[in-house]
Amino acid sequence: MILAANFKMNHTRASTREYLEKLEEHESGGVELYVFPPATALQAHSGKVRVGAQNAYAAVHGSFTGEIGLQQLQEFGINTLILGHSERRHIFGESQELIAKKFAFYKEQGFRIFYCVGETSKERDKGSEAIHRAIEAQLVGVDLEYEKLIVAYEPVWAIGTGKSATPEDITEVLAFLRSKTSAPLLYGGSVKPANIQEILHIEQCDGALIGTASWDITTMQEMIDLAKEI
Ligand code: PGA
């Protein structure tokens, strides 16, 4: 079981350190834990929790204003990365071509990649074929056999809205993804203590990528305890 905390643009370096310390102290059973702080809070960390980056450019270093690359990640021993998050795609306009380029670069570097896909509400309204088409388009240029790949299904309309997809919706899309890859499959989108067990019980669901509910350490610890019972 994998639980990953995506801090997005929340927490500072100091509060991330405190959070990681508390997470290390918490009994996690067999649950694998990942924390993705903002770039300024990336830090060397040893322990059971793995720290990863939310985004990085496909270069070692260079003239890419506002970006971080391999050199900046290596300073802290970071080798885990989220790619293709819907906020990167929709708010910052990342194209599939750019995301695939990042994927190829960090795959070459042996990074563990949390790769996100998910349909918009418009696509969902059109039915399951449109959903599959949308997801397929987000997999173009991605090596689905990469051994360090983890795929997160995150419907755009469920992210940060408090409105999670139903177990039926999730089951259907995870089965579709399973037909394409043997990578661990996560669900993300308004996961919280009230729904995490139901979600983790879904066949083919190997864990959750959690935004909002992960930012508070007590809530995160609560979700770890609930995951341990599965
Ligand atoms: P949320 O975010 O839990 O706040 O919906 C999930 C994500 O974007 O990974």
What does this structure look like?
This protein has 230 residues and is α/β, with parallel strands linked by helices. The protein has nine helices and eight strands. It has helices at 13-25, 70-74, 86-90, 96-108, 121-125, 128-137, 167-178, 196-200, 217-228, and strands spanning 2-6, 32-36, 50-51, 80-83, 112-117, 149-153, 185-188, 207-210. Strands 3-2-1-8-7-6-5-4 form an eight-stranded parallel beta sheet. The radius of gyration is 17 Å and the shape is globular. The N and C termini lie close together (9 Å). The protein binds 2-phosphoglycolic acid. 2-phosphoglycolic acid binds at residues 6, 154, 159-160, 188-191, 209-213.
Describe the structure concisely for a colleague:
This protein is α/β, with parallel strands linked by helices. It has helices spanning 13-25, 70-74, 86-90, 96-108, 121-125, 128-137, 167-178, 196-200, 217-228, and strands spanning 2-6, 32-36, 50-51, 80-83, 112-117, 149-153, 185-188, 207-210. The chain is 35% helix and 15% strand.
